Amino acid sequence: MITIVLSIVAAAAAIGAYIGYQCFAITTTSKAMVYVYPGATAESVEDSLATHYGASFAKSVGKIMEAIDVDWSRRTGAYTIQPGMSAYRVARCLTRGPQSPVRFTFNNVRTKKQFAERVASQLMMSADSPLAALDSDSLLAAIRCNRHHEKAT
C-alpha cells in the first residue's frame, strides 16, 4: 500500500516538474513584437509566437492561454515580448498585459480620407473612427486645432 502511494506521489511530482519546466524554465532568447489582429484565435497567436520562438515554446504558451480562457476580440494590438520571459510570463503579457506603443509614420497623404485609411490600416481600426475624429469640432477644439489652418489662440 505504501509503495502505491509513493508511486502516485512520485508520478505527481514528475508531472509537476515537467509542467513547471515547460511554464517557467524555458525562456525567450530575443525581443519580438507579437501582433494580435482583429478576429485572431489562440491558434493564430500561437503561430505568430512559433515564427519567433519555435513550435515547442508556442505550444507551451498556448496551453497556458487555454487555461486562462482568453477573449481575443478584446486583446487586439501589439505586444512586446522581452528576452528572458518564461512561457507563463508571455501568456500573461498577451492575455492580461498592456499593449506596446507602436511607431506610426505617414507621408504622401493629401486628403482626410487618405489619412484615415492609413491610420486605420496601421492601428487596426475602422477608417470611420479617425475620419469622425477629424470632423469633430469639439475634439479639434480640445487639442487647439481648427479646420481652417489658422493658429489657435
Q: Please give the largest β-sheet.
A: 2 strands, antiparallel
- Spatially, the strands of the biggest sheet line up as 1-2
The percent range for helix content is: 55-70%
Give the overall pLDDT as a whole number.
81
**What is the approximate shape?**
elongated
Q: What ranges have pLDDT less than 50 throughout 5 or more consecutive residues?
A: none
Strand content: 5-15%
Assign the structural class, choosing from mainly alpha, mainly beta, alpha/beta, alpha+beta, or little secondary structure.
Answer: mainly alpha
Q: Give the termini separation.
A: 87 Å
Report the radius of gyration as a whole number of Å.
Answer: 23 Å
Number of helices: 7
The number of strands is 2
Q: In summary, what is this structure?
A:
With 153 residues, the chain is mainly alpha-helical. It is built from seven helices and two strands, in the order αβααβαααα. Helix 5 crosses helix 6.
Structure notes:
It is a single chain. This protein has 153 residues and is mainly alpha-helical. The radius of gyration is 23 Å and the shape is elongated. It has a two-stranded antiparallel ribbon with strand order 1-2. The longest helix has 24 residues. It contains 7 helices and 2 strands; from the N terminus they run αβααβαααα. The model has no long low-confidence stretch (mean pLDDT 81). α2 packs antiparallel against α3, α3 packs across α4 and α5 crosses α6. Helices cover 56% and strands 7% of the residues.
